[in-house]
Each structure stands twice: as structure tokens, then as C-alpha cells.
Amino acid sequence: MWDDFVPTESAFEIERGPEELLQDARKEFECKIKEFGAWGGHETVPEGDIGHLEDAWDEAEHDDIITEILQNLALENQESEADEPSSQPDDSNTWQPYSSKLMFLLDTIDNLPRLRISGSLMKVLLWLLKQVGVKHVPSFDALRKVQHRVREETGIPTINWMSSKGNAFSFNDPRTLIANDWMNPLVSPHIRRYPVIPADGVISEVWHARKWRHDIDRHILSPMYDAGNGRHYFIDKPAILSNSKMVIPV
User: Fold this and answer.
1) Following DSSP, what letter does each residue of 108-126 receive, concatenated?
2) What is the pTM for the complete model shown?
3) How many angstroms separate the first and last alpha carbons of the chain?
4) Please, which of 8, 174, 208, 224 could form a disulfide with 203 given CB 3.0 to 4.6 Å?
5) Which run of H or of E encompasses 80?
6) Structural domain boundaries of the chain?
């Protein structure tokens, strides 16, 4: 009975499985969030978040309404591709790496973990700020560029690693975490830099104990002692005391 059969592309139609349908829905959703910026500063859909696809669709539908309002207000045409405003506020150095306090606050509310702000809603907020007379309000493009620059310069990278037993895990780069602690003016004064010999002989802190004073190689501890007034004494380097004696700090 198959002698006269002529195969064509539509001869057989195989029903798509649930996994394939889910992949199609995910691709369509990714295109939608790229178009409307539904995930704020994120570039792609978070992996493993397929279970919340319906909630994300609802959010995108609300975002469609905001986008329509923006189009009616002709705000889309007002967005410039320029960088930050040419005139910067006087407190620009106070809020580094941000250019101003306003830029810092906008980035903060745009990255609240439990209150995501879409790109369209952020455009509305920027428009409202301009309407009430707030100075130095950045454009939406300028805000996104600053957010990208801050993530590149000061963000903490996540390292993906595979153990010898084949277990995959991730961790934040400890070097960056320590560097941020040293740069933080509220944290760095509390960092203990040198071993301490307690006057009463009572060991109550880790920097009092033998490990810091004798066991750890001094070359992996602080490389110098800061005596203040710009005077630095490096270990293994000759130094002259006030009585003209020569010593080598260790």
C-alpha cells in the first residue's frame, strides 16, 4: 500500500512535546523582555526561573500598558543617546563611583531584589523627576551606561568552579571582597593590620595569639608598619631609630 506514497513535508506531523513548547515560550519571552526591558539592569532571563514564567508574563503585560502610555506621551522620542548630562552637580565626588546622589538612588531602587522595576517604568520615573523640576536628571540611556560601568568597575565577580569529584559550585571572588573592605571608609579603620602584644598579657583576640606573632610567615602579613606622618617601615629593610641605631623590622 506504500507503493504510490509520495513523501512531502506535511505528510507527517509530530506533536511537539512539553519541553519543546516550554523552550519556544522561553524564547518568545526573552524577545519580549529584551524589547521592553522588563528585567531592569539584567541582560537575559535568569537561568532556572522557568517555573515563574507565568508571573513574568503578567509583569510583561503590565509593562505593555506602561509602554503604551509612554508612546502616547511621546517620551520615547525624547530619549537621547547622549551620555550623562554635561553639567554635573557639586557633590559628584562624594558619591563615587556614581556621578551624583540622584544617580546612586536611581540605581539603588532599580536593583531592589523584591521590587523589580521595568525599563518602561524607570522611564516614567525619570520623566516625573524632570516634570517636578529635579536638576541633573539623567536620560534612561545614561542611567543604563552608568549601571553597566559600575558593575564592570566595582562589581563582585562570581567564580564558577568544578571540584575534583565533579561537583559544580560558585563563590564570590574573595580578593574583590577583601579589596572592597579596604576601600570602605566605614570598615577599613576596624581592620587589624599588625600583631599586638597585650600589655596585661591576656590573649583575648586572634591578633594577640602566637599564630600571628610567630607561626605565620611574616611575608604574608602586613608588609610594612605605618607610623603616621608619612613614615613607613618595611619588613626586612634597614631603618634608623631616633638614637641612630640601625635595626631591621621583622
Assistant:
1) HHTT-TTS---HHHHHHHH
2) 0.48
3) 96
4) 208
5) none
6) 18-154, 192-247
